[in-house]
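Here is the promised in-class demo. Please do not try to memorize the tokens; focus on the logic of going from shape to residues.
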């Protein structure tokens, strides 16, 4: 499986990457620093099975990136999980209504990450 980890924090990308590697289902994990970079990676290196997407990032926020992902028919099968500190209920609902498959709040444990990823990908 192939994952795209999108977060402006390198340390957070490393934490998510480490959690995904522990699952042993992912043979490729690609990183992006913002939504614009993520869209380029999706276009150039896709398809991806899952995109783990932060909300607040420079250049393009995660929510806007989610909207762009859901506009492209070629990415319909790509699962998107928001992984963010954004915890306002209306924004969680907004993301799910826009096509996010799941929502994981920071901070999280490796077990929480694994549980959500397994659920989204039906592993």
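The designed amino acids, position by position:
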């Amino acid at each position: 499986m192939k994952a795209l980890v999108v977060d402006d924090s390198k340390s957070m990308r490393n934490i998510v990457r480490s959690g995904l590697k522990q699952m042993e289902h992912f043979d490729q994990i690609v990183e992006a620093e913002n939504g614009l970079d993520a869209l380029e990676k999706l276009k150039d290196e896709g398809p991806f099975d899952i995109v783990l997407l932060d909300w607040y990032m420079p250049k393009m926020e995660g929510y806007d990136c989610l909207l762009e992902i859901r506009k492209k028919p070629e990415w319909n099968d790509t699962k998107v999980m928001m992984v963010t500190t954004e915890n306002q209920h209306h924004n969680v609902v907004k993301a799910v209504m826009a096509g996010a498959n799941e929502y994981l709040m920071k901070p999280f444990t490796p077990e929480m990450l694994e549980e959500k990823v397994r659920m989204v990908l039906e592993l």
